[in-house]
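Data availability (excerpt). The following record was deposited with the supplementary files.
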Amino acid sequence: MARPELYTGLDIGSAMIRVVVGQRQPPDEGLHILGAAEGPAEGISKGTITSIEDAVSSISATLEKVERMTGVPVEHAAVSVNGTHIVSQESHGIVAVAKADGEIKQNDLDRVIEAAQAVATPPNYEILHVVPRTYTVDNQHGVKDPIGMSGMRLEVDTQIIQGLSAQIKNLQKAIYRTGVSIDDMALSVLASSTACVSKRQKDLGVALLNIGTSTSSLMVFEEGEVMHTKILPVGGAHITNDVAIGLRISIDLAEKIKLEYGTALPGDINKRDEVNLADVGGEQTLVSRRHIAEIIEARAEEMIKMVDRELQQIDRSGLLPAGVVLTGGGAKLAGLVDLGKREFRLPVAVGFPLGYTSAIDKIQDPAFTTALGLASWQADSHGAGRLLQWSNKILPVNDTVDRMKRWFKSFLP
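Predicted structure:
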């Protein structure tokens, strides 16, 4: 009897590397997670490779952990891409329908998306995703799926997500040197949305904020489609750095204090509450808990205001019915949800993984949403899957090029 196919999501973060391995469950076609592991990321900063040797060692060590759990070597994986080098822009494509009877076929969709890709991409960038938002058939706007409809002219509005070629190639090189083949690469926040945002939330209008160590990724959805994408150069490490500077202590000690005693709501802390640094491995010194909370609140407020400015640019500040979903390791900071509700003037919640089964408690953590989403992404690309409700419309550029080649070959004798 053939062994069920395994799907692997490999999330390369600035501080941690996380990997999950799962297989599809027949009844609901969800993923059952067999193995999950995490390890420190060396040679990676702000989502980009700074030392290939160190990155290869870190990735290999994390893969070995999950291989010991599953008893199966990891040979293929879907990999996350992140970093401030990621940019997105809107694009529009127009083509004439090929069939004489005007019926729109798959190759018409491929051609119109190819036309939308013909944007002025900087020479050192490459396209990661082409995300179709809406189609127009002969001036009929707002069409979601035009296949089978009749018309003479087909148009599409897309969002093009691009990254620096050198950064992407360095990431690929580090992973290939571990002996793992890359099945697909996906923007980390797009993968996270698979794991922790429901179809209903995407239809209503929701902002997903993935708070990492060095960067935070924002993706806004409306009517089920990607509306806006932005990578912000601020994350959980900036809060830790502020605590370290404010209290004149080491980074490691500041991280412990942030996790054990920190909150983004100083008003909830009694003025007399104090923390003895000796309790977390420091010197015998008493520090006001409210002072710690004020330091954290200042940086967290700055982060939220940066996100809100992005929402203002697309006229969605305070206007997303499903609110803001916080995910990633930084989303676990105490008081962040309440601070978000106050500043965004919207519902705010922490995004936990949805629809996965596992005996491993570790995966029920916002920090694992990207790795889980990548495993679903890979499962979806290998056949019928539940991944993104619109995942089959998000085209990596290589797929589009291959389809175009096949389309041209169909005309040859």
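Summary of structural features: The two ends are 43 Å apart (CA to CA).
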